[in-house]
Amino acid sequence: DGVTEVLAHRSDNLRDKFIEIPCSEDYDSHKRFAGCTPRKCGRGVTDDVITREEAERIRRIAERGLSLGGSDGGASILDLHSGALSLGKHFVNLYRYFGNKIQDIFTEEDFALYRDVRQRIQQRIAQVFGISSSAMYLTKPTFFSRMNSTAAKTTHDEYWHPHVDKVTYGSFDYTSLLYLSDYSQDFGGGRFVFLDADSNKTVEPRAGRVSFFTSGSENLHRVEKVQWGTRFAITISFTCDPAHGIGDPRLG
Q1: In the chain, what are the domains?
Q2: pLDDT value at 1 more than 70
Q3: Where do runs of H (alpha helix) occur along the chain?
Q4: What count of Cα atoms within 13 Å lies in the side-chain half-sphere of residue 134?
Q5: Which of 40, 45, 153, 208 could form a disulfide with 72 if both were Cys (CB 3.0 to 4.6 A apart)?
Q6: Active-site residue identified among 120, 222, 231, 250
Q7: For the whole model, what pTM was predicted?
Q8: Which tens digits make up the pLDDT trace of 147-181?
Q9: Are 202 and 164 in contact (CB under 8 A)?
Q10: 231 is catalytic
Q11: Tens digits of per-residue pLDDT, 64-86?
Q12: Rounded to an integer, what distance in angstroms lies between the CA atom of residue 217 and that of residue 200?
């Protein structure tokens, strides 16, 4: 892997760490939206937007939802927007599959917290990149992930390959991750790695930490395989294109 530099240690308490990097050309092949499409690119980490206590409450939402299913392999996802839930080697629609029982699993407070956290992350990204928060739209997929060391059973379980979000999902312009568990305490491996030409730069997850970045090739990245324990996170993605916007999840 060559040289590896740690951008954010688990033990750090970062107010705002931001590194600007030149934008890739990925945005040129999509329609540009003034006041939103990245002109300033880079990556940031903050422990200042979401408290650890809020992260624990959000993790419990993920745990309750994922307890209804879960992948046979090491990576399970729960998408409250579309209802997608890993089940065995497949996905089911949580809302169709469980119907009214959903009201026994999630509360209005859960969805209100989810919405509040999403809005705060959106505002912080807008502030750092100097764009208007109202010009950004939540986009899909935005989802919880639970990863452990179980061997992959399908390609969906193979989360560790290097990728570029803008290439994988054309709608993405800004990507964020809210970590819901602690590296080296709750799990081993599973660090987030930016793959730069000169070195790898890693982010060690900690509950409440938000890592965010522009979604183009300037931020090629991967997640290390989880070696032990369970890693929880939520990926929250934003687009500048209102045609690709999605609403917040609603209960019932």
Answers
A1: 4-240 (2.60.120.620)
A2: no
A3: 52-66, 94-98, 102-105, 108-129, 165-168
A4: 0
A5: 153
A6: 231
A7: 0.96
A8: 999 999 999 899 999 999 999 999 999 999 999 99
A9: no
A10: yes
A11: 999 999 999 999 999 999 999 99
A12: 14
